Amino acid sequence: MTEPPRPRIFLDGYNLALEQGTGVATYARNLSYALGRLGYGTGVLYGTRAAASAEGLLREIGFFDEKGPALGALQLALRRGKGLLRALGGETAWPVPVTGAVVQDGLAERLPHFDELWNAQDLFQQAAVTF
């Protein structure tokens, strides 16, 4: 007899990605550990600046490289415009592989318990502009 698939719950990673923690981030982090102990599959959806890539290692590097390249005002405006056009068809989140091959200095300390990490580039900024 096969076991039923375990339920998956995804958490909003917006506050978890902030450099300075918040009460909401602390709550979400503790909730992630409790969900894991209860046997739920736990995923976290982030909206960092990391661009999607077909190559898993590049997605991992982009995700954990918090600073990334500095964008000028024109580049930022073009990127946001592109994001708004892309959002018309719906956002796409990409899985972030965590192989351990990438140095995870800053963000690793703030990571909650997870079975899956996903990222949709600038998701929360795009949502703020759209809604």
Descriptive overview:
With 131 residues, this protein is an alpha/beta fold. Helix content is 39%, strand content 13%. The protein is built from 5 helices and 4 strands. A 4-stranded mixed β-sheet has the order 1-2-4-3, with helices on one face. α1 links the parallel β1 and β2. The protein starts with 7 loop residues before the first strand and ends with a helix.
Gist?
With 131 residues, this protein is of the alpha/beta class. It has five helices and four strands, in the order βαβααβαβα.
What structural category characterises the helix and strand content?
alpha/beta
What is the average per-residue confidence, as pLDDT, rounded to a whole number? Answer: 79
If helices are DSSP runs of H or I spanning 4 or more residues, what is the number of helices?
5
The main β sheet shows up as: 4 strands, mixed
Radius of gyration: 16 Å
Poorly predicted runs of 5 or more residues: none
Shape, principal axes of CA atoms? globular
- Alpha-carbon distance between the two ends: 47 Å
